[in-house]
Design a protein that fits this description.
GO terms for molecular function: MAP-kinase scaffold activity. One of its GO terms (biological process) is positive regulation of canonical NF-kappaB signal transduction. One of its GO terms (cellular component) is actin cytoskeleton. The structure is a single chain. By secondary structure, the chain is an alpha+beta fold. Helix content is about 30%, strand content about 25%. The protein is built from nine helices and ten strands. Strands 7-6-2-3-10-9-8 form a seven-stranded antiparallel β-sheet, with no helix packed on it. Strand 9 and strand 10 form a beta hairpin. Helix 4 packs parallel to helix 6, helix 5 runs antiparallel to helix 6 and helix 5 runs parallel beside helix 8.
Length: about 250
């Protein structure tokens, strides 16, 4: 989700300004409807929705005009794929609190991607996390909440800070257990906060320590979502498009 989609209209579809185009994505359990913005008479732009699973869905380009019935202009298939970012988010969410799994992720510290790729990795994994259906009882510290803060252990927050993943750290901060994780020491005696300081991640350290710290720039910063029962409406300020998602 959250990629830019461009729609090229054919000559016969280039119509008057009062026609509104939108895309309808129909999946097995969820349907999305996105508005579009006209770039020029022959091109539209919108944002792909974050889907609930990896599958091929049907996409319909619809045209609406006041006083006229809705017209389906074209139909096509669209595939949501399972990529490395999705796998990573699913793994981390599933094994939050599992010390063996979290210690295993530390090998990434020795084979850390180049600085230029860290930002890309951060954006992708954070977006994948946002689109996961996390259980209501999900916690950054894992399912065992009986552990006290004094027990040294690795946390998801340590993982995010060690790699310098600014957006993922922000996402975890907003989840249950996110703030508590900041004061937990690992077996080396490091907290996520001290780890950020030790590694010279100034923006990350500021994010973890300032109460009024702002969310890092990303697609999620450019969007606002309102949930209501089985529906949600998302506004992408960047392109000024809206997305309605409904569970079947």
């Amino acid at each position: 989700g959250d990629s830019i989609i461009t729609v090229q209209l054919t000559e016969e579809d280039k119509v008057e300004d009062d026609v509104v185009f939108y895309l309808v994505f129909t999946g097995s359990t969820v349907q999305h409807c996105t508005s579009t913005r006209k770039i020029n008479p022959g091109s539209l732009e919108t944002i792909s929705p974050g889907h609930d699973c990896c599958e091929t869905v049907k996409v319909a380009l619809c045209a609406s005009r006041e006083g006229h019935p809705v017209l389906v202009v074209a139909e096509e298939s669209f595939q949501f794929v399972q990529d490395e970012a999705y796998d990573a988010a699913q793994f981390l969410a599933t094994y939050a609190g599992n010390q063996q799994a979290l210690n295993f992720t530390r090998f990434l510290d020795r084979s850390r991607p180049p600085a230029a790729n860290v930002d890309f990795l951060d954006e992708k994994v954070a977006l994948a996390f946002r689109h996961l259906k996390l259980p209501a009882e999900w916690n950054v510290l894992g399912p065992d909440q009986s552990l006290t803060e004094n027990i040294p252990r690795e946390t998801l927050m340590h993982f995010a800070v060690r790699l310098g993943l600014l957006r993922l750290a922000w996402f975890l901060l907003q989840q249950p257990g996110g703030r508590v994780a900041l004061s937990i020491h690992n077996n080396e005696g490091a907290t996520p906060v001290s780890l950020a300081l030790e590694r010279g991640y100034q923006k990350l350290h500021q994010l973890l320590t300032e109460e009024e710290a702002r969310e890092p720039d990303s697609w999620s910063t450019l969007s606002h979502t309102v949930h209501s029962g089985d529906y949600s409406v998302k506004h992408h300020r960047g392109l000024d498009v809206y997305m309605l998602t409904a569970e079947a």
